[in-house]
Amino acid sequence: MKKTYYLAALLVVFLSFSCKKGAAPEMKPLEIAVTDVLQQDVRLESEFTGQTFGQADIQINPRVDGVIESLNFKEGSLVTKGQLLYTIDPLPFQAKVNQAEGSLAEVEARLAKTKSDYEMMVPLAKINAVSQRELVAAKSAYNASLAAISATKASLQNARLELGYCRILAPITGLIGISKVRVGDYVRPGATSVLNTVSDLGDVRVRFTMSEQEFLRIYREVNKPDSKLKGAGQSISLTLSDGTIYPQTGKVSFADRQVDPTTGAITFEAAFPNPDKLLRPGQYVKIGVVTDVRNAALVIPQRAVIEMQGIYQVYVLGDSSKVQMQIIKPGPAIKDGYIVEDGLKSGDKIAMGGTSLLKNGSVITPKIIQWKPGQAETAPTK
């Protein structure tokens, strides 16, 4: 009897222990971040790649040939209009000036003689003391001397101009670059003979291209009577190569007269203020142009959207903290969000996702957060 009792007691303890071990622990609902579907006016920007140019980029070319005698500026510094930049050896051109001045003095002496001869013969010819042939010859010599004076003065002026070209001055006030020549280099006139470049950086020009199709769409939209894009070209954004937004906004200055037949694109130019001289010619930047405006658009975070085989879905928070999967039709992206064209309405709350444990019909513990496109998520203020 005792043995039977002990066996029964051990069986009860074993069964009790087995039942406790096999019971599954109760799962707590997942804590999931939830945000409201935003409804707001949205200005959609298209992004284009552009290159910067100075307000004026003036190449400095020699206008006479010769040896560079001096550089009178600091490379990469600000130069003022009329400042001496380069000097070319002036001795050959000074010699030309001296020679032209000598020729002019000689011609002036000849002019004085021919004028005196002609004036002396005029009264003599009236009394037939000299023949008409001699009078005509004297007048011709006098006229030839006058012509020689004009030609010699022109030669002297040209020689003085060439001598002046030996001093190369800054054409504008601006930032000068690295010199392409050094003292002792021989230079000669020509389009390919560039000594340096001076750029006016007061305003910076940015050239960018837009496809013909995009241009036609925007052009038609802007010219509608009730267009929301009127004035969009007066507020252009610029993103630098490191991803930072340039603090100044620009405006479109003009569009090229034609579409490039080789690329099917049209070139635009925008002007940006450059008070801190941060922008320099030759930079590659991104231009943001407002190409669409949508009023009362629904906007949600991109990371809340699940895409599978071309189908876009979100988890919508329903009653009893239960989430239901909802198919949506996303529109254009805006920063880190999407415009939703169908499938949601204002006031809906959606799960931010971020976990594979979330399933259709899951009960969650919602953690309400505030989200705006391009801004960090924050907890709601109390």
Automatic annotation (TrEMBL):
Main location: other
UniProt domain Multidrug resistance protein MdtA-like C-terminal permuted SH3: residue ranges: 297-354
Compartment list: Cell envelope
Signal peptide positions (record): 1-23
KW Calcium (keyword) present: no
Multidrug resistance protein MdtA-like alpha-helical hairpin domain location: 97-165
InterPro entries per record: MdtA-like_b-barrel (IPR058626), MdtA-like_BSH (IPR058625), MdtA-like_C (IPR058627), MdtA-like_HH (IPR058624), RND_pump_MFP (IPR006143)
GO annotation, biological process: response to antibiotic
Occurrences of domain Multidrug resistance protein MdtA-like barrel-sandwich hybrid (ranges): 58-196
One GO MF term attached to the UniProt entry: transmembrane transporter activity
GO CC terms in record: cell envelope; plasma membrane
Keyword terms: Signal
Domain Multidrug resistance protein MdtA-like beta-barrel intervals: 204-289
Superkingdom of the source species: Bacteria
SUPFAM superfamilies: HlyD-like secretion proteins
Pfam families attached to this UniProt entry: Beta-barrel_RND (PF25944), BSH_RND (PF25917), HH_MFP_RND (PF25876), RND-MFP_C (PF25967)
NCBIfam families from the UniProt entry: RND_mfp
Homology family: Belongs to the membrane fusion protein (MFP) (TC 8.A.1) family.
Protein name, per record: Efflux RND transporter periplasmic adaptor subunit
UniProt source species: Flavobacterium nackdongense
